[in-house]
Amino acid sequence: MELKNIQRVYLVGIGGIGMSGLARYFHHLGCVVCGYDKTSTPLTDALHNEGIRVVFEDRLDWIPMSFQKPCDGTLVIYTPAIPKDSHILNYFKNHGFDLQKRSQVLGIISRGMFTVAVAGTHGKTTTSSMIAHILKDSGKDCSAFLGGISSNYNTNVLYGKNDIVVVEADEYDRSFLTLSPDTAIITSMDADHLDIYGDHSHLEESFRLFASQIKPGGVLISKKGLPLEGFTYSIKEGAGAMGRNIRIEDGSFHFDFDNGSTSIPDIRMGIAGLHNVENAVAAIEATLRLEVSADAIREALGSFKGVKRRFEYIVKNEKHIYIDDYAHHPEELRAAISSVRKLYPGKKLTVMFQPHLFTRTRDFVDGFAEVLDMADELLMLEIYPARELPIPGVDSNMVLGLMKLENKRLVGKQESLGIIKAEQPELLLTVGAGDIDTLVNPLKEILEHV
């Protein structure tokens, strides 16, 4: 497939963060772009406002005339998250259309470009967004496909004028194996997506395959301690690139970078979190190798505003601190809660958590119980099922029953708003990857208008 020949693009599952980035990319190229998703969201609203048609009913009569017969220049992209019984998806499958997974299209786009691919079970969205921002802010430039909405650019896709592309490499469904990067970063390889991989060893094997696809002369930059061969980074001693002397000054994280040949003292982070300092060390190493200067990197990290729903400050005033985060794995929760504790050691922490997927809750129930015990108060929502059907005996009470924390309760979404309004917590953290984000603006209203 040649990109230059594509004129019409239909995306089945257009509202996903990766799919919407491709929709914007092809729209930017001048293609006719439209698609289907099951629910309207702020992201699909944004696509509509940019001139991309989106429908929300899985009906064949909603497929535009120009997509009812296969022809040259027409591309149909789908996400594995779409149910296999989708009428629209099966229409395209059964009528001879050229169907490609999102990951395959990303592989086609990045082919022939200098590709920086960031993979990992945690940290890949923030790290890839940091790299893209450093390249943009320094004037080096790049294109980028991000797994979240960059707060600096208010989008998940960036367009550059050179041949550098930064991509978030997703391990779900082994998607990242369509990529052949010049620079690959692997941030973590914790057990996850066991519904796909079966066990941790198969997940690790997939990451090793990804690393083996680096182009000749390319480089692997991986977090120290991972079972991989390559250049390492860490916020602990003994790595090739290190973040040292980490401290909090005036509410901001500061650290020094050193990789043996380049030292960058007193870097002030524009975002919070010990885990984000580590992400920054990886981003610095990658951009130094692209010949960005130390001073430009320091300046860019100071102006980096992060990614929506990645340790994002929603309210920050004298009475309330409210932070929202996408964390949905025990280790991500540990990073978020630990960072909040480090920043605000004297405040009572109220955590509102929505588990994501029945399989993940089942597979990591002990880990969830342990890490949620780090809160002072827990408001637990029911599991967000996403693509899954219920599993007998697997629910949020399964986690609550293993916890030692006394101040915990299972609540509905509307009920949770009433509790926050009544209790007015001084420090609130909402976490989860489901639809807990629909509570962010109502919670902001409650805590801002006291």
Automatic annotation (TrEMBL):
| Membrane spanning residue stretches | none
Q: Which reaction does it catalyse?
A: UDP-N-acetyl-alpha-D-muramate + L-alanine + ATP = UDP-N-acetyl-alpha-D-muramoyl-L-alanine + ADP + phosphate + H(+)
Q: Where is the Mur ligase N-terminal catalytic domain?
A: 9-111
- Every copy of the Mur ligase C-terminal domain together lies at 309-382
What residue stretches are annotated with the Mur ligase central domain?
A: 118-286
Key words of the record: ATP-binding, Cell cycle, Cell division, Cell shape, Cell wall biogenesis/degradation, Cytoplasm, Ligase, Nucleotide-binding, Peptidoglycan synthesis
The residues the record assigns to binding ATP are 120-126
GO BP terms: namely:
cell division; cell wall organization; peptidoglycan biosynthetic process; regulation of cell shape
GO MF annotation list? ATP binding; UDP-N-acetylmuramate-L-alanine ligase activity
Location within or outside the cell: Cytoplasm
EC number of this enzyme? 6.3.2.8
Q: In which pathway does it act?
A: Cell wall biogenesis; peptidoglycan biosynthesis
What the protein does comes down to:
Cell wall formation.
Kindly provide the name given to this protein in its UniProt entry: UDP-N-acetylmuramate--L-alanine ligase
The organism encoding this protein is Mucilaginibacter pedocola
User: What does UniProt list as this organism's lineage?
Assistant: Bacteria, Pseudomonadati, Bacteroidota, Sphingobacteriia, Sphingobacteriales
